User: What shape does this take?
Amino acid sequence: MKLQEKTVRKRYLYKGKIINLRCDDALLPDGNLCKREIVEHSGGAAVYCEFEGKVVLVRQYRYAYGEELLEIPAGKLNAGEDSAVAAVRELKEETGFLADALELVLILYPTPGYTNEKIYIYRAKGVRAGERSLDKDEFLNVEYLSPEALRAQIESGKIHDAKTVAAYYVCNASKT
Assistant: This one.
């Protein structure tokens, strides 16, 4: 049986700066109609970066969760922007670090049940320090953990961010 669902009608409920919300009518594989609530998101780029043996992380308050999270540097893609360009931009803005090269290691679908967001995760190579340039509404602290300490925080449940967890395990697969 083909599992594909066919969109019959798209209806936008909200169009915002970061997301759009729509409620679609879709046709199921068995021919029945259903509703699908979709959060449209332009996607994001994130960077797993090690400098002098430490993983470069950012701590920031995440309003939706009401808590500070420790994460790899990341940010939203601008309309039509290449994910590698966004990754370079976000790494520099948030941490000041520059990379000679980036390697795409994973495309993550964080919540496929209701959003089309994709996060492109890169590994930075040839890293050197520079000056960071935060956006005016961006407040975060840069922190450094050894890969072993990052793994311990993930496994003890102190780090919950999916892109950070996935990036750690993909970039350290031979060490785990």
